[in-house]
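Retro notes - structure team

What went well: the batch runner handled both jobs without manual restarts.
What didn't: labels got mixed up in the shared folder, which is why I'm recording both outputs here explicitly, each with its sequence directly above its tokens.

Job 1
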Amino acid sequence: MEPAEKRLAVETEGCLQSGIPRALPAARRERSSSGKEWFCYLERALARAVAEAPLLERRGRVIHAAGTVIKATLPGAKIGELCKLENRGEPWELLAEVIGLSGEQALLTPLGDLTGVCARTSVASCGAVQTLSIGPGILGAILDGLGRRIDSLGGIPLVPEVEVAIQASPPNPMERRRIASPIPLGVRVI
């Protein structure tokens, strides 16, 4: 083995509490305990930075728009996933949901007005499905299809306690509480 190869030989040694082994070049690793602590600190900081770093963004562009359907190239898209459409250099953006796939092309349905969509509109995957923030402030509120408050009673803040996916399985009707009293609506046919 050449001297350069010896210097670049990699030794593995456990450092994190999770038991994930780390690899450091033997020529650069400190032998003292303070050096080992320093490298453990760096490794933890690096692991934290990697965990918090944004993932690679999947992007594409609009190919065709007709009516309320947009066709876009978006590799790796999944049905039900949210996408953000935007025009570079403009303050315009639009959310859309993937409703169909054909190879690397995705069919999107916009969650807003299509005004502004053009051939240079870029499409970025959000990587999540549409959710609704649930909390005490939602009681009695009037919401739009995206879960945003549209009533004039915006004084009560909507403090989200739970994020719930809009496309969720229904609750089991046999596990609900029994209805103890009827709700008087003033209409005899109901």
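Job 2
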Amino acid sequence: MISRGVASALVVVLVAAVAGQEPRRLATGDVGALAFADGGRALASWDADGDGTFRLWELPSGRVLRRARPPLGAARRTSLAPDGRALAWVDDGLTVWDLIADKALGSWPAGKDVVAVACSPGGRFAALARGGQLSLIDVTTRSEVLCGGAPAVKRGDASLSLVFAPDGRALALAASRQERGGAALLVWDVPTGRRLPLHGAEVGAARAAAFSADGATLVAVAEESPGTRAEYTLRAWDVATGREVRRFALPEAEVDGLAFAPDGRLLVVWGERGVEVWEAASGGSLGRLAAPRGTLRAAALAPDGHTLAAGGEDAGLLLWNLASPGKDDRPRGAATSWDDLARADARQAYRAVWALAAAPGESVAFLRERLRPASPPAEALTGRLIAGLDSDSFEAREEATRRLADLEALAEPALRRALERGPGAEAQRRIEALLQPKLTGRPAPEVLRAVRAVAVLERVATPEARALLKTLAGGAVEARLTREAKAALRRLAAKG
């Protein structure tokens, strides 16, 4: 449950950590929920605890396009759809309201034991957590299309959150407590009603969850208590396979919410102690600041990844342009930025991203000279390194392991062939470890540079930048650079 707080903390941390700019205040008063609409050309805001007013703001003008006040009555649970077009609430029953047309889409007899509700994009579906069950209601046909077990819902002391993927095809439930033998993080496929497996999701508690813009990745803040003090990790799963793909520690967290950047490269985490921005590739922090008081209530990132909106009680509605370079970024030359793209320090690296994106013509030409499509490593090299895994020297075995790990997926075919040949016990142990997903740790500097260089090209998005991305996408299919370039091209194509 997201408690009251101040949105200014989110803006302050981003300003301090990334660009040094002041936010634009679009409105004063309370804001309880936010969602970008119309491809980022509009922003929906809703006051959850005040007068319940919905507003649709035109961007960048800030003009109010629509104002509505749904008949909430004595609503106990509420949820704004991810696209800002619908609102669901529960009093004695469930109601889903079309905020644009200002009319009811449908209703359902929900009962009084509902502990969480979520509204799908467009408002066709609503999810209800109650009595140890998760129900998915099609409000347009007034039918229950899914009713699955969710043991954590039985816990009266559990704080629950339900979240739909932005495309509406998946639904996640995160619980701050769980029943014995139950899971604190559950995912369902909405079209089929099938529960999806998440390997390693048997965590002590899940404080919050969020889907990436394409619905392919689910992230959650997991809480474990191995001793007297709770430990928090930010964990990510591939929704299609259920495999955990990333994990990094949060120093301390009372997390109320997560927001994914649309390109999946950054995560914003906010809660009682403030807010932090993380880079997914490195697990590095771009900055953190303790909230002056209370907690945040809402934040959202625009589809183009350029605009951050945040709101809270008495904080109003604040906008910040992530794409606009700050005073610390303008003097940076291309050569210096190229070096900084490979830095372990995510904050310094993203200052280089902003700086390069601010000079598109020069930057694309500069990157074209330095980036090449990835090619598979020579068989002689991988063979030599794999042989080194069985060396008599511990230092040689460690060096071979490190270099193979730096090759990431490019080394996988050679490693699998070596495993089939039946290597020695030590080599087999190291090969099997190398083939496991690398959940923690930081990628090699060259890999980080490639990921961040693609971020620059996607942000620039000129014909020349797209052409370079297309060239890079033609590299070895296993390479991180190839996959990043292909993903960037898909996102750019979706924008038109």
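One thing worth noting from job 2: Residues 445-460 form the longest helix (16 residues).
We'll revisit the folder naming next retro.
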